[in-house]
Design brief:
single chain; mainly beta; Jelly Rolls; five-stranded antiparallel beta sheet; globular
Length: 343
């Protein structure tokens, strides 16, 4: 088992904005590395002179598929996703269920054995019971509220999360840190959340939830806890969309200068079978679905992502998560019409 990093707190990390990098092809880094909490180094901006040479990856990054329709609903037994696994940060759970502990303890091979793998399923869509959709405000309509910061505004009944402070007690290192790729010391950032009323970014109704990571990589999303009964077969899903562009002011649709730019945005569903509210770590109650990559068609149009599971407790938490690998200027994510059905 890979030993976690030593975690060293930092005081007042610099908030230097990241500058855009050149639009040559990034090196495909090791997606098996773990985003790690910040050490003693203060993250630096990405220099505009950084060029990103290309290499030929050892294995294909995507599963080829036909182009989807405007709002496709996957009917195959497995969604289209990036084949290379991308890990999430690891922290050691504290005694409180109200959030992460005040300090983080890096797991070791002797103190933290590998959790049992929970394999998600994806069969035919289930028939909901009489309770119907168990999520509150699933279509992201009505009022929004600020959560801890004035720039984090989410719809009522939903909560934001991100691989950064204060959701986690430490910042997270960006993925794919190597020469010609994300620079050493680059950290994931806290996104800004807001409603969108742009009809091209709405799947249904009058609004949708948006968040964006301006010139910074991030791993973030929204979550909600809903009631379940042990033994029930349930399905969760939502319609999601991405916008990704390097230029300023930026095209109204995504732009891609190379294949690695297409990997900028990846979606997945994360479940917490015990109903707790921490999306990161190696807890055995965490179930992570596969990433939906470029070939799933989520750039500038909505697609449906979904996952099925068997409930093990009276509550389950669903996290709709988006990963941004590169510090592009436009790293915008949209979600609408979520659901949680059980039978």
């Amino acid at each position: 088992m890979t030993q976690g990093p030593e975690l060293i707190p930092i005081e007042n990390p610099a908030a230097t904005p990241l500058a855009p990098f050149e639009t040559s092809t990034p090196v495909v880094g090791d997606l098996n590395q773990t985003p790690q909490p910040i050490g003693s180094a203060v993250p630096q901006g990405l220099a505009t002179t950084t060029s990103i040479p290309s290499i030929t990856p050892a294995a294909p990054l995507f599963t080829p598929t036909a182009a989807p329709s405007a709002t496709p609903i996957p009917t195959a037994t497995q969604p289209i996703f990036a084949t290379a696994p991308i890990p999430t940060p690891v922290w050691t759970a504290g005694p409180s269920s109200g959030g992460p502990p005040s300090t983080v303890e890096a797991p070791t091979a002797t103190s933290s054995p590998a959790p049992t793998q929970i394999v998600p399923t994806l069969g035919p869509p289930i028939t909901p019971d009489e309770q119907g959709n168990r999520l509150d405000n699933p279509s992201f309509e009505g009022n929004v509220r600020a959560v801890e910061f004035p720039e984090i505004n989410v719809f009522e009944r939903w909560e934001p999360y991100y691989c950064d402070e204060p959701y986690l007690p430490r910042k997270c290192r960006a993925l794919e840190i190597d020469e010609g790729n994300n620079p050493e010391g680059l950290m994931m950032g806290r996104p800004e959340f807001k409603p969108t009323y742009d009809s091209s970014r709405i799947n249904g109704g009058e609004s949708a939830q948006q968040w964006f990571c301006f010139y910074r990589p991030c791993m973030a999303g929204v979550y909600q806890t809903f009631d379940t009964s042990p033994g029930q077969l349930c399905e969760v899903g939502a319609f999601v969309q991405s916008w990704s562009a390097i230029e300023w002011p930026g095209a109204p649709i995504s732009t891609f200068d190379n294949d690695d730019a297409k990997r900028a945005s990846q979606w997945r569903i994360v479940l917490r079978l015990d109903g707790e509210e921490m999306a990161f770590g190696s807890d055995p109650d965490l179930m992570r679905g596969p990433f939906y990559g470029f070939d799933s068609g989520h750039y500038d149009q909505y697609i449906q992502i979904r996952m099925q599971f068997t409930a093990t407790s009276s509550q389950t938490t669903v996290f709709f998560e988006n990963l941004r690998l590169w510090p592009f200027r436009h790293n915008d994510s949209f979600i609408d019409d979520a659901y949680a059905y059980c039978q």
